[in-house]
Amino acid sequence: YNRLAFLAETLQSILKQTFSNFEVLVIDNSSTDGTEEFMLAFNDPRVHYFRNDRNQERGYSRNRGLSLAKGTYSTLLDSDDVMYPHCLQKAKDFISANPEAMFFHGFYEIIDQHGAKIKDVRIEPIGNAYQQLCEGNFISCIAVFVRTALFERFKFSEDVNMIGSEDYEIWLRILAEYPVHRIESVICGMREHRGRSVYTNMYANLEYQRRKILSSIESDPVMHARFGLYLHLINANYYYHQAMFQFHLGNAGPGSVFLIKTIVAKPFIVINRRFAAMIRSLLSALMPKPKLPS
User: Which residues contact residue 5 at a Cβ distance below 8 angstroms, ignoring those fewer than 6 apart?
Assistant: First the structure.
């Protein structure tokens, strides 16, 4: 939605893949920035453009695109992110070596608005994947490949209040039934900029999202069997993000409440780098803000 500034680069990153047997489905969430005109003039038979008749939650656009997909596997790419040239070939090679894999992902890195690398994304080796996913969404929604047929059963939430956690919620449901596999290679770049919808929408609804995910697990016997032992880790993860959000707003008091909740839910966090980040953010929130000149 309204990503014309990045859309051409995103599309070119797909079209320049070393593997060429793919289709691209562009779902325009009723943009108003010239995206429609740009796409209607775009000339590549592999690229198919669809426009929503009104602005919808992004889960709707993902579900629409996946319902139209013809490939055996599908992957998602937000309109401000990029695939590296070897991404699809790496996926094809992985599928050939692991034909039983229904769900796998690769590594990605953070890039700036110009495409330059900012940092690596630290992802631990897969151990107890159920516990690890409850500690945080290490899969994210980039560099993920899923057997397309699964999306006949599994849909992204279209609840607007779930923005920022709708991918986490569907991965929990899929992982409850299918193992996650991994490509041990950086295959995509996630663009860091303040216009990302996770910045503008996610943090105000963290408590709603925490409750919604816990309710989904507790009401589903299969999910509860996989994740029931680790609900405290889901609580700790959401409390951590709520603490950081409040500290970012300068709200030391409410942030401290969530900091304490995080420690209660996961005491060992005090020896984790996340605890150090919370303390730094708390101190920053406590510092007096400079007065603006009158």
Answer: none
Q: What pTM does this model have?
A: 0.92
* CA proximity to 20, closest of 61, 81, 71: 71
- Which helix (H) or strand (E) element contains residue 284? helix 273-286
pLDDT 10s digits, 108-121? 999 998 899 999 99
- Tokens (6 digits) for 172: 């929990």
Phi, psi of 243 (to 5 degrees): -60, -50
Identify the pLDDT of residue 291: 62
CB 91 within 8 A of CB 73: yes
| First and final C-alpha spacing in the chain | 40
**Structure tokens of 198?**
């996770």
> Distance between CA atoms of 2 and 6, rounded to whole angstroms?
9
Alpha carbon 129 to chain centroid, angstroms: 17
Burial 44-59 (b: 16+ CB within 10 A, else e): eeeeeeeeeeeebbbb
Whole-angstrom distance, CA of residue 222 vs CA of residue 227:
9
